[in-house]
Amino acid sequence: MMKILIATKNKGKVKEFQAMFESLGVEILSLADIEGSPDVEETGTTFEENAVLKAETISKEMNIPVIADDSGLEIDALNGKPGVYSARYAGIHKSDEDNMEKVLNELKEVKDSERSARFICALAFARPNEKTIVVKGECEGKILREKRGHQGFGYDPIFFVPHLGLSMAELSKAEKNSISHRAVALQRLNNLIDEEDMLWQKP
Ligand SMILES: O=c1[nH]c(=O)c2ncn([C@@H]3O[C@H](COP(=O)(O)OP(=O)(O)OP(=O)(O)O)[C@@H](O)[C@H]3O)c2[nH]1
Ligand SMILES: [Mg+2]
């Protein structure tokens, strides 16, 4: 079976990529499958910069094609925060629960009509000696006043998808993977690259 390495340590992302690539008969490997893989510091100020940093570092290190995902939540009432700092919004060793609590607290006084937000996903596809390809996907929504649902990961329980009338964590895996920022970005990447280029056979 064909294999692709996703340069991530986030189990939620890995599951979603596995599901999205399943129909293509492609197996997804992540950094969790690779012993001693380096931690790449996310020093960029944009999702694109961080995705490129992660993909190019791992691709160079291992001399193979790699996809990296940098993603997060932009809340208009917080001037775009938590943004690129979504994973560490409540602090470096804090949990998804802590991050959601922080957002809910900060939005306590914010009216329903001013709770717009979007998930953003930048995907970078890096290959040895080739130009890196970067794409971005978005998913528009609103921040709820309390958590709803148990699927997904990260901020999904407080992210409401207006046209479906459900939180992201109330959607089935298949539903989330058909409308999410990650799904939109992956579709854009797929449209840009030749399928042959994407394939990586484990050495
Ligand atoms: O509710 C959510 N549904 C999603 O679909 C989603 N996608 C991203 N996020 C949040 O944004 C951070 C990304 O940060 P991030 O791109 O640096 O990833 P990460 O540090 O978790 O793993 P890695 O890929 O860097 O190894 C994550 O931790 C999450 O908090 C999401 N939240
Ligand atoms: Mg990260």
TrEMBL record:
<dbReference type="GO" id="GO:0036220">
    <property type="term" value="F:ITP diphosphatase activity"/>
</dbReference>
<keyword id="KW-0546">Nucleotide metabolism</keyword>
<keyword id="KW-0479">Metal-binding</keyword>
<dbReference type="InterPro" id="IPR002637">
    <property type="entry name" value="RdgB/HAM1"/>
</dbReference>
<feature type="binding site">
    <location>
        <begin position="153"/>
        <end position="156"/>
    </location>
    <ligand>
        <name>substrate</name>
    </ligand>
</feature>
<feature type="binding site">
    <location>
        <begin position="8"/>
        <end position="13"/>
    </location>
    <ligand>
        <name>substrate</name>
    </ligand>
</feature>
<feature type="active site" description="Proton acceptor">
    <location>
        <position position="70"/>
    </location>
</feature>
<keyword id="KW-0460">Magnesium</keyword>
<comment type="similarity">
    <text>Belongs to the HAM1 NTPase family.</text>
</comment>
<feature type="binding site">
    <location>
        <position position="176"/>
    </location>
    <ligand>
        <name>substrate</name>
    </ligand>
</feature>
<keyword id="KW-0547">Nucleotide-binding</keyword>
<comment type="subunit">
    <text>Homodimer.</text>
</comment>
<feature type="binding site">
    <location>
        <begin position="181"/>
        <end position="182"/>
    </location>
    <ligand>
        <name>substrate</name>
    </ligand>
</feature>
<dbReference type="InterPro" id="IPR020922">
    <property type="entry name" value="dITP/XTP_pyrophosphatase"/>
</dbReference>
<dbReference type="Pfam" id="PF01725">
    <property type="entry name" value="Ham1p_like"/>
</dbReference>
<keyword id="KW-0378">Hydrolase</keyword>
<comment type="function">
    <text>Pyrophosphatase that catalyzes the hydrolysis of nucleoside triphosphates to their monophosphate derivatives, with a high preference for the non-canonical purine nucleotides XTP (xanthosine triphosphate), dITP (deoxyinosine triphosphate) and ITP. Seems to function as a house-cleaning enzyme that removes non-canonical purine nucleotides from the nucleotide pool, thus preventing their incorporation into DNA/RNA and avoiding chromosomal lesions.</text>
</comment>
<dbReference type="InterPro" id="IPR029001">
    <property type="entry name" value="ITPase-like_fam"/>
</dbReference>
<feature type="binding site">
    <location>
        <position position="71"/>
    </location>
    <ligand>
        <name>substrate</name>
    </ligand>
</feature>
<protein>
    <recommendedName>
        <fullName>dITP/XTP pyrophosphatase</fullName>
        <ecNumber>3.6.1.66</ecNumber>
    </recommendedName>
</protein>
<feature type="binding site">
    <location>
        <position position="41"/>
    </location>
    <ligand>
        <name>Mg(2+)</name>
    </ligand>
</feature>
<feature type="binding site">
    <location>
        <position position="70"/>
    </location>
    <ligand>
        <name>Mg(2+)</name>
    </ligand>
</feature>
